[in-house]
Amino acid sequence: MKQNTRQQNKAETRRLLLRAGLDLFLEQGFEKTNAVEIASKAEVAVGTLYLHFGDKAGLLQEVLLQGALDLHERVMKVYIDPPGDPYTLARAHVETIVQFLEENQKEGRFLLEYASRRDSAITSVLDKIVKQIELSVESGVKMGVYRADINPALAARAEASMNLGLLAWWIQDPGRATREEIIETLTKFRASGLHSQTKHDYT
Amino acid sequence: MKQNTRQQNKAETRRLLLRAGLDLFLEQGFEKTNAVEIASKAEVAVGTLYLHFGDKAGLLQEVLLQGALDLHERVMKVYIDPPGDPYTLARAHVETIVQFLEENQKEGRFLLEYASRRDSAITSVLDKIVKQIELSVESGVKMGVYRADINPALAARAEASMNLGLLAWWIQDPGRATREEIIETLTKFRASGLHSQTKHDYT
Amino acid sequence: MKQNTRQQNKAETRRLLLRAGLDLFLEQGFEKTNAVEIASKAEVAVGTLYLHFGDKAGLLQEVLLQGALDLHERVMKVYIDPPGDPYTLARAHVETIVQFLEENQKEGRFLLEYASRRDSAITSVLDKIVKQIELSVESGVKMGVYRADINPALAARAEASMNLGLLAWWIQDPGRATREEIIETLTKFRASGLHSQTKHDYT
Amino acid sequence: MKQNTRQQNKAETRRLLLRAGLDLFLEQGFEKTNAVEIASKAEVAVGTLYLHFGDKAGLLQEVLLQGALDLHERVMKVYIDPPGDPYTLARAHVETIVQFLEENQKEGRFLLEYASRRDSAITSVLDKIVKQIELSVESGVKMGVYRADINPALAARAEASMNLGLLAWWIQDPGRATREEIIETLTKFRASGLHSQTKHDYT
DNA sequence: GATGAATGAGGATTCATTCAT
DNA sequence: GATGAATGAATCCTCATTCAT
Predict the structure, then answer these.
(1) Distance A52 CA to E16 C1' (A)
(2) Which pTM value belongs to this model?
(3) Residue A189 to residue A93: CA distance in whole angstroms
(4) Domain spanning D1-54 has what CATH number?
């Protein structure tokens, strides 16, 4: 029992540090946030931060990983029992991300901010999401609803980039567009960019 | 004459510093690169860096600005006498960027790396490019070749994000796809994402 | 019985800590070895180290003292019933030390390493050994087998230094000389350095 | 000319740091002396220490090397035009060291203190001195004034250890013996330890 | 007796920037 | 304009030690 309390306290301390790190990294960026500040915000000693995460970068990785996993989990739910219709799937995918961003403003902003950084813990999670999109594109192509002349890996990457980029821009100042406009825009691009059609449509 | 030589030397020194800064920022990132290192690589004294750029951030701004302006100039050329057909325009836009990246690998990689940073000098240049895309979208809508139910500002931003994101990913390891595949993918998304079509197409 | 077991466990824990301390101090030096590391190597909690030895320095003292006492005990045995002949005594003294070093490589190396440190617990033990040598020198002088024009205290100190220094050097890389060569060298210096002889011998 | 002044100032700064380091390391030991303290004593900023020596250990090495080279130079002078008689050579060698210690109390004490530390810059210089003694022993053996049954390398090492050890002990409290007693003791050991004589002398 | 998470003062090192030459 | 030695505030990280369990 006692041991259990100790475990709980340790976990609680860890949680406090993760939250403090998230807040400060988001506010000021990783480089401008210093270790004492984080510890102080978490109301623990600096040493405790190093005890739990090894170094400041270790804390960043964990913060990032935590957020990325949360988002990943959400997005994956859409694919567990996916709507057959690509447009609906595209919309569900986009809506889930927007939903997540609205519920977890800080985590979301932070993730978007660091998603493009090299060597961040996010990269691998991002890759997984892209892979998932790729699979759904492939199945769409097989089913004949998506154009065959497309490279699913590239299309998936392009789409993820578009989502991330537009959302990062939007979330920095949500007054720039309504939630619905954002969802619409992204959905249209996705759905139609993949849909079968011929070039002569444009001439 | 002597004056002229001095001018030339000054410009040359500036060029050396910009190049050294670009190389090191790209290799190690801005924060991990220090002023003495840059000066040393440029084979001048640290003081000289401060003479030319005020401070380290000043050098970064100039490096970024230089690259962004070069890219911007290139992209703008496409819009001076644009092809009427949206698909061709989209392709020309994308091709120009890819071309630039291949000719200026380092500058390109660096720009893409910093494009998503808040407060970077690049942001304003990026905004200009986005604005240009927005105008072309608007004109496409007016001409009736683009769907009317689209927010040109958002579409432009979405497209720019997609370009940047996919290209950043590609340029980190060009073996991931051929140049042509990249151009194709981006062009298709752009052209079709904007083209008139109705939702029932997908049902 | 249970009490007995507890006693045994306590003694065992102490032994584990002493050994872990010895190993790590020898490998990395006292300053670069930290308490958690020692405890971890001994497979006990840090607190336990403090329970047994008060502080890190306390452990060092005990490690040193233990080794020094072991060595002292050995050396003293030679003087309990000493051979009358100075050469044989000198040889027996030297051989005992070499023997000890070979049997307790780690302890030995450690002792030699710290013997010259100021303020180490070893100093007092070393002083005792030197005193013992001094007594034997004095008795030799009285017996007329050692030259009278010598300061026994200094001679004893000189000899102890020589022993320690050469042995420390040897033990760091035993390939440098055979065991017998070391013993021979030290014995000769001792025996003859003290033996009566007149300066004109050398002219 | 200006450049020259700059050079001189730099050298002066270096000298100040070396002296401050020597003083403090001697007083408190390397580990207990901190960088700010050294810089402060040298009346420069901490950064300057790092500019000149890379790190704290770098300063220690230089201090040690400087002292060792000074001593080495002195000792070597004895061997440039050595007295043919071994006793006189032995005495000259010992006297030179004692002389040096008296003239450079601090450097001397410091050298002796650190001579036995592993991996100190001193080791290589000490090895050179030992090598020199070895050569003189070898030549003594060839000339027939030293016993043939001795390993010159070991004898040289033994003697150097003896010198260092006794001197280190003496210099810590010079009241323990007169200068003359020290010289006498070391000279006798050296001269007689090496001189030809047979074991049966002692039986 | 034993545990090990937490502490926080202390120390090493960095590096943007200055300024006398 | 150019130089580069010097600066010192800022920051990262360590680790001996404690104490509630």
Answers:
(1) 31
(2) 0.85
(3) 13
(4) 1.10.10.60
